[in-house]
Amino acid sequence: MNFLAQTISIIIQVILLVLSIVWYRQDYEIEPLIGIITLCGSSIISLLMRFVKRPKMQLYHVKTHYGRWTTGLTKNNPQVIRLGIDKIDQYWDLEWDYNLEIRNNSSFTAYNIVVEYNNIPEKTIVKGEIGKIEPVQSHDMREFKIKVTQSVEGNHIEADNYLKQNEGVLTKDFTITLKYTDENGIRFRTKYFWLSQKNEFLIF
User: Fold this and answer.
1) Is residue 98 within 8 Å of 146, Cβ to Cβ?
2) In this structure, are strands 111-118 and 175-181 parallel, antiparallel, or unpaired?
3) pLDDT, tens digit, for every residue of 91-114?
4) Per-residue pLDDT tens for 141-160?
5) pLDDT at residue 12 above 80?
6) What confidence score (pLDDT) does residue 8 get?
7) Residue 170 CB neighbour total at 10 angstroms
8) Is 110 in contact with 132 (CB distance < 8 Å)?
9) β-strand partners of 115
10) End-to-end CA distance of the chain
11) In the structure, what pLDDT confidence band is assigned to residue 1 with cuts at 50, 70 and 90?
12) Confidence of residue 86 (pLDDT cuts 50, 70, 90)
């Protein structure tokens, strides 16, 4: 009903605008010119309001855990390893765990939600989904689990350095795009930049 009312209102404004233009071209009086300007402004505002009043899906993540563990020794070690003296070269698995919140921060329900992961790091595991026809009501939230892993070689000091430094390296180009519509089928997008936690709200 809301969409029908808006559409009828725009059609009426267009008809009045056409009639005002015809009137002005016939008589060149000031009244139809004022009507043309008023109706043009009103039509522009009506169209803009359709996009201002929109669902706004917003993302935010929190790191919940990170760590490393060894999976074995490499061949880059002496035949006799002196424990506590030699820096043992090992294979390591690094892991960073996150909770990803996807929240509808608006007063309007979001429909037809699609989640796209762009430049996602290799060996990343995503747990969570939103059904294709599952709406997300105003201020509702969905939580996803994201696990980023990496395999490296080195001693324990190098593994600790990788753990501190590689998180940003692996995720610097990682973005998430949410595509969704309002109840009228108008398409919107949110582009989320993982490293900066920035949300960019887009139309179409």
Assistant:
1) yes
2) antiparallel
3) 999 999 999 999 999 999 999 999
4) 999 999 999 999 999 999 99
5) no
6) 55
7) 22
8) no
9) 178
10) 22
11) very low
12) confident
Give the span between the Cα atoms of 188 and 203, in whole angstroms: 5
Listed residue (174, 104, 113, 112) closest to 146, CA to CA: 174
User: In the structure encoding, which two tokens stand for residue 89, read together?
Assistant: 């070269």
Q: How far does CA 40 lie from the centroid of its chain?
A: 34
Distance CA 97, CA 62 (A): 9
Higher pLDDT, 90 or 45: 90
Residue with tokens 């990343």: 124
Distances (CA, A) of 60 to 57, 124, 146, 147, 189: 10, 18, 12, 15, 15
Look up residue 82 and give its amino acid: R
Reported pTM: 0.74
Residues whose CB falls within 8 Å of the CB of residue 146, separated by 6 or more in sequence, listed in order: 61, 97, 98, 99, 100, 124, 125, 126, 127
Distance of CA 102 to the CA centre of its chain: 8
Q: Kindly give, in sequence order, each residue whose CB lies less than 8 Å from that of residue 147, ignoring residues fewer than 6 positions away.
A: 95, 96, 97, 98, 124, 125, 127
Residue 179 half-sphere exposure, CB side, CA atoms within 13 Å?
A: 8
Report the C-alpha gap between 159 and 164 in whole angstroms: 9
Measure the CA–CA gap between 154 and 120, rounded to whole angstroms.
25
